[in-house]
Amino acid sequence: MAENTILRARMGKMGMKRPELARQMNEALDALTGKYGTVSERTVHNLLSGRTHWPRSRTRLALEAVFGCPASELGFTPPRPDPPEAPVQRRRFLSAAPIAVAATAGLTPPKRTTGPYRVGADDVDRLERLHDQLVEDDDQLGGTDTVEQRAANLAQQALTLQNRGAASARIRARLYAIAAHFTDSAMWAAIDGRRLHAAIGYLNQAVTLAALSGDSATIVRVWGHAGSLYRHTGRPTDALAASEAARNASRARRDPLYASLTYARLAVDQAPTDAPATVLRNLDNAQRSLTRIDTGEPRPSWMRFYDQAELDLLACGAHTTMGRWTEAEARAHSALARLHPGMPRNRALVTAYLALAQLHQGATDHAVATARSVAPDLVHGRTAHLLDDFTAHLHATAPASSHTQEWTTYRKDVLHAR
């Protein structure tokens, strides 16, 4: 066993002894998961002595949060070969390369001058404006590769400023927050596009950066999307834990808008396993919270997506999972009536939910007409996945129907021909 001299040097540079590192790691886990960690001085001894070649996931996450870099830069060696959930894209993103990838929006790293570059509010404001545009692109296009890669590139730009520039504590916190939002946007684009291995690659970095920012609203966003990722990858227990972490964040406890969002997402993640009464209670909590919001309270621009239409969409998803097709159809109609014109991705998704609900209630003709109304250029990712479920159920329940033939021809000639 070779001593981990890199970790020891980093601790020495920060004036940190074993008890202090254990304490900070436990506090980081508390911020990340809502549960205080169990890291002991013995754990730290094993990390330093070389007994631990590659820490377990919780220990690794805590280390990365304390030191602000990947565990691979702290003297630890990941196992080979890499596990399936850690693709090349994840390793490239977490490598903290000294030169950032240029973002398509035209943001470039600061030029070197005499002394360190001073990062100011203007730099962060510019990044936040780029993030606003990214969110608009996601609303329009959904989870395309282009949106994902642009978000990942902009996250790296924010980290380059963080690592190369001098800044006040307030600016550093904002940089961590915007880097977390870009990384989360990349993760969400990958989730929405059903590129789930890629999404997993962004998860740890997004959670770590959110914790380093100290911003509760950012933590709500990241844990909320983490819950969605876990749900789509067949990990309902982890999905529920992530949604509960978002629900327990301080911003969700004090702001009714965030409370409504986190209650609704919690209901979605409870739907596969919990009793319907529990799911319905949290949907009611979400609805009541939404009626109590203060519309004059300033909130980040990324939160503008959450309104009654989004709550209806989340409720539709929960009812779909529970097989409550009448309620799912009602919520889909309500969402479509309220959706903002600038949300075509969500309109396509809700329409696919509506078609599935109609089909499960035996209205084959209406269901096929609804499915055909989904904009063909938005049939990808989650929407395509729902329409695949629609197709399978249609063939299983009405294989000889003229409506089934109509849909089969349409899929072949219009959707698959694109």
Structure characterization notes:
The protein is an all-alpha fold and 418 residues long. It is built from 20 helices and 2 strands. The chain has a two-stranded parallel ribbon. The longest helix has 24 residues. It is elongated, with a radius of gyration of 23 Å.
* Biggest beta sheet summary: 2 strands, parallel
List the strand order in the largest sheet: 1-2
Assembly form of the protein: single chain
SSE series = HHHHHEHHEHHHHHHHHHHHHH
DSSP summary: helix tally: 20
Helix content: 55-70%
- Hey, roughly how much beta strand do the residues contain? under 5%
The value of Rg in angstroms is 23 Å
Shape: elongated
In the predicted model, the low-confidence regions spanning at least 5 consecutive residues are 81-114
Ends: how far apart?
57 Å
Coarse structural class: mainly alpha
> Could you tell me the number of beta strands?
2
What is the residue-mean pLDDT, rounded to a whole number?
85
